[in-house]
Every structure is written in structure tokens, then in C-alpha cells.
């Protein structure tokens, strides 16, 4: 069995072990270089590609002793992204070594800056490891191409998980945390753009005992940023209107709903950056200052979706309204300008049906005078 050369993310041993599905003996990984090559960022992605570079040398690791199953799992992880194995000659302290390297053969990724392992580890390692765990969970069930088609959402789900891990804990009054839960099994019976996870677990009861093993399912999405644009000078807000699947599936008379601007937080993006990006995409609107309302779960009984809710101070002239949205996502979004007084009347007469919007309106009513005084 040929040895493989890892020049990129698989040099990160925790990721390699997730892909292989077992621990790795450090003596099976030999430091080496690949002369006349360099690793570069794939533009807009969280992984590198290899390119010929006269006079350069790409550092890496030679992986020895890989089994047929190891190669199959690696091929599953890499192959869907358009990478094939290519023979090259690496150099170690002991001399030259014939190896195989994952090579981007289709030219689908544009070359960016020189890739550095430490830079990737600082920003992406935790997210990529979490994403790899989900990807390899589909091994034997979905094709590599199917998994790659899902990868943007797999990565966004992973980024949501990492964001939660990095937050300052906000415990309930009982003080119980994740350590009071024992995971038994995890299944993903459905996974496309969104996913459904079914967990078997035990949790600590309030009397100190452990529950029986229970089976619970959750709709698994991502973090989302929501922003209600407010003009403190004109004292009005901008709302958007669009067709929504939730009301349609419920049988609502009006599947078109008034909402704040909203969108999922992409991997590598902050909630604040997401709010500003979505304001531009959905309403052509540049926000000045963001005021955090809350970070909260809208439906904790059945979904992991987490909302970062903002008021966005903005200039809202009459000409700002129109129709927008991302055509590639079949979005058709209309914007409306509503005075504060009319907004409160809509609230009081049950015309606002989206809960984050109701929360934002109530927050605005409480802080409106402060925002207007500072404008």
C-alpha cells in the first residue's frame, strides 16, 4: 500500500483521526517536504490546494501503514471536492520517498494566498473537525458528491456548535450544564439543507438521580442574525415581506409575513457581520450602529436554531423601499417603511405574527428615547 502525503488540513491529527475513525500512532506520521510545490488557500474556502511552485517546498507529513479502509475513508473525505491522488516525490531526513498526494484535478478552486497550518488551526480547526464528524457519519450512506453538495450547511452547523462552545456559559437557575447529560447514541435520519438528529441520552433529574435513557429528536439548523432597521431621526423602521414556508405548512391564510431582516450566520462570519450583509442583500441598506437585543432560542423544545437579535440604526429615506433578495436563492423580498406609532398599533392589533419582530418592537419601545436622543 502506497504512503500518502498530507500537506494541508490532514496534518492536524485530531481531524485525521476523525476521518480515519481511529487514533493515529504518531510514529506513523513522518515529517517531510514536497519540493517544487506550495500549498495555497482555495479562495473563499477553509482548506488548501496544492500547486507547482518552482523553488518552494510544501511542508507536510508522510502517512505510513494505512489500511485499505483508511484509504477508502480518506478518499470519501477528499474525493467529493474534486481531489484525486497523484504520485510525487517527497523528501525526509532519510532521503526521497515515493508518495501519493491529494491533487485538485478539476481546476474548480481559484488559488489564494499561501496557506499556513497555524493560521488554519487558529480560525478553522474546530469548525472543520466538527464538520468532518458529520461528514464521516454519512460514510456508506451518501455519496461524496451528495455530502459536498450539503457541505455549506454542514460547515455552518459546525460553526454554530463551535460558537456555542466558545460562549460564556449562561446556566439556568438549577446550575445544571452539559456535564449532567450522557449521550448514548446519535443518528441523522434526515439531512439535506437542514438536518434532523435523533439522540438517545440520559439527563440529571432535579432530585439528583439520572433519568432513564430517553429518545429525543431535534431539527438542526444554524445560528441566525436578525436585525430591525430603525431611523431615530425619522422615527420609523423598515420591515421586509416575503413568502415563508412555516406559515404555509401550518395552513395560515397569509404565507407572506412581515419580518425583521434575517439570515443564517455563515461559517467564519460573526453575527454582526451577518446582520450587515443581510441588510445589504435584502434591502440595499447600510447599517450604522448595531444594538444587541438578545441571543436566544426561539423553539428550544425541538430545534437548536439560535437567534442573534439586533436593532440596526440606519438612514431610512422614502427611496430605500423596493424589492430585493438573492436571485440565486429564489428570494423575492419587498421592504416597507413603518412609523413607530403605526408599528405599535400593528403590535397592539395582533398584526405582527413573527415572534422575533414582536420582541424587537418591545425592545425598541423601551429604548426609543435613548436612541433618538443620541442621534
Strand residue percentage: 35-45%
CATH topology of the largest domain: Nucleoside Triphosphate Pyrophosphohydrolase
> CATH top level of the largest domain?
Alpha Beta
- Average pLDDT over all residues: 94
CATH superfamily of the largest domain: Nucleoside Triphosphate Pyrophosphohydrolase
For this structure, the quaternary state is single chain
Number of domains: 3
Shape by Cα distribution: globular
Total helical segments: 9
Please give the largest β-sheet.
8 strands, mixed
Domain Nudix hydrolase: 220-360
Motif (Nudix box): 263-285
InterPro entries: AIG2-like_dom (IPR009288), GGCT-like (IPR013024), GGCT-like_sf (IPR036568), NDP_pyrophosphatase (IPR004385), NUDIX_hydrolase-like_dom_sf (IPR015797), NUDIX_hydrolase_CS (IPR020084), NUDIX_hydrolase_dom (IPR000086)
Organism: Thalassovita taeanensis
What descriptive keywords fit this protein?
single chain; 375 residues; alpha+beta; Hypothetical upf0131 protein ytfp; Nucleoside Triphosphate Pyrophosphohydrolase; 8-stranded mixed sheet; 6-stranded mixed sheet; 35% strand; globular
SSE arrangement:
Layout: E1 4-6, H1 13-20, E2 29-42, E3 48-63, H2 68-79, E4 83-92, E5 95-104, E6 111-114, H3 117-123, H4 125-137, H5 144-166, E7 181-191, E8 195-203, E9 214-220, E10 223-231, E11 236-243, H6 245-250, E12 256-259, E13 261-264, H7 271-283, E14 290-296, E15 306-313, E16 323-324, E17 333-339, H8 340-348, H9 355-373
Parallel strand pairs: 1-5, 10-15
Antiparallel strand pairs: 1-3, 2-3, 2-6, 4-5, 7-8, 8-9, 10-11, 10-13, 11-12, 11-17, 14-15, 16-17
Amino acid at each position: 500500500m502506497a504512503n500518502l502525503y498530507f500537506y494541508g488540513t490532514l496534518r492536524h491529527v485530531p481531524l485525521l483521526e476523525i476521518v480515519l475513525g481511529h487514533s493515529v500512532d504518531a510514529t506513523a506520521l513522518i515529517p517531510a517536504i514536497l519540493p517544487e510545490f506550495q500549498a495555497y488557500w482555495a479562495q473563499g474556502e477553509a482548506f488548501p490546494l496544492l500547486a507547482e511552485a518552482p523553488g518552494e517546498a510544501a511542508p507536510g507529513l508522510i502517512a505510513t501503514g494505512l489500511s485499505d479502509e483508511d484509504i477508502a475513508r480518506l478518499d470519501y473525505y477528499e474525493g467529493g471536492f474534486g481531489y484525486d491522488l497523484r504520485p510525487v516525490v517527497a523528501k525526509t531526513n532519510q532521503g526521497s520517498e515515493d508518495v501519493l498526494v491529494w491533487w485538485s484535478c478539476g481546476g474548480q478552486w481559484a488559488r489564494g494566498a499561501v496557506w499556513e497550518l497555524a493560521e488554519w488551526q487558529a480560525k478553522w480547526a474546530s469548525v472543520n473537525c466538527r464538520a468532518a464528524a458529520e461528514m464521516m457519519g454519512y460514510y456508506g450512506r451518501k455519496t461524496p458528491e451528495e455530502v459536498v453538495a450539503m457541505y455549506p450547511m454542514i460547515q455552518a452547523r459546525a460553526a454554530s456548535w463551535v460558537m456555542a462552545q466558545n460562549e460564556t456559559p449562561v446556566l439556568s437557575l438549577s446550575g445544571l450544564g452539559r456535564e449532567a447529560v450522557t449521550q448514548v447514541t446519535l443518528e441523522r435520519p434526515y439531512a439535506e439543507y437542514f438536518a434532523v438528529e435523533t439522540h438517545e441520552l440520559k439527563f440529571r433529574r432535579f432530585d439528583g438521580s439520572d433519568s432513564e435513557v430517553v429518545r429525543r429528536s431535534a431539527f438542526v439548523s444554524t445560528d441566525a442574525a436578525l436585525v430591525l432597521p430603525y431611523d431615530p431621526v425619522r422615527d420609523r423602521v423598515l420591515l421586509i415581506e416575503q413568502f415563508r414556508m412555516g406559515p404555509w405548512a401550518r395552513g395560515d391564510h397569509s404565507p407572506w409575513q412581515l419580518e425583521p431582516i434575517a439570515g443564517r450566520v455563515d461559517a467564519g462570519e460573526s453575527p454582526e457581520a451577518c446582520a450587515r450583509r443581510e441588510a445589504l442583500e435584502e434591502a440595499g441598506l447600510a447599517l450604522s450602529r448595531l444594538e444587541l437585543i438578545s441571543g436566544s432560542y426561539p423553539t428550544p423544545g425541538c430545534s437548536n436554531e439560535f437567534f442573534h437579535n439586533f436593532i440596526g440604526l440606519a438612514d431610512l429615506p422614502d427611496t430605500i423601499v423596493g424589492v430585493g433578495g438573492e436571485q440565486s436563492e429564489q428570494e423575492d423580498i419587498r421592504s416597507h417603511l413603518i412609523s413607530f406609532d403605526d408599528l405599535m398599533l400593528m403590535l397592539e392589533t395582533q398584526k405582527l405574527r413573527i415572534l422575533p419582530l414582536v420582541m424587537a418592537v418591545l425592545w425598541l419601545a423601551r429604548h426609543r428615547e435613548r436612541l433618538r436622543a443620541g442621534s
